[in-house]
Design brief:
- The protein is of the alpha+beta class.
- The chain contains one helix and eight strands, in the order αββββββββ.
- The protein has a single domain, classed as minor pseudopilin epsh domain (minor pseudopilin epsh fold), CATH 3.55.40.10.
- Strands 3-2-1-5 form a four-stranded antiparallel sheet.
- The longest helix is centred in the N-terminal third of the chain and has 46 residues.
- The chain is globular and about 70 Å long.
Length: 184
Amino acid sequence: MALVIFGLVAFAVLPDVSLWIRGLAIRNTGDAIKAGLERARMEALRRNAPVSFWLVTQPGGGALNDSCAVSANGASWVISIQSPDGKCSAMPSVTADPLLVDKWAASEGGRSVVVTATDSNGAPAPQVIFNSLGQVASTVMPIATVEISHADGGARNLRIVVDVGGAVRMCDPNAGAGDPRRCL
């Protein structure tokens, strides 16, 4: 009888657990991308030189490898001075191309997360360059927003906003009026 009751309770909460897991994957990916953007900005300030943040794809899973590609829809990221396209497995270096600073590979749970980065005009944008003052460099159409959702839907979406001054914040585009998590 106890097993039947346990089974019914488990069956009743299963949709909530699934939604929670999807929300957790979105939040983890959002936190990682936001941290990468902030790290790139701080690295530009530390080096007193331009530093780039790039979204990249991660085919095959696990660690970033040399088959990575720069993409406005990549859930993984690389911080480097030069384009990391096809060079994501490089070790951090101040002399070897692509002058890699740091990298992060989306986990298995993050594969079902959909990332869409756009510039201020809504066009796909895979990178942002921070100048020596920590501001967004105007030399390219940089990432202005990163939308993060789940492929299966149902979970809360998140948005990361990068303003021209270099500030990075994460917000909820679907939060109600008066909610401090709401995107302005």
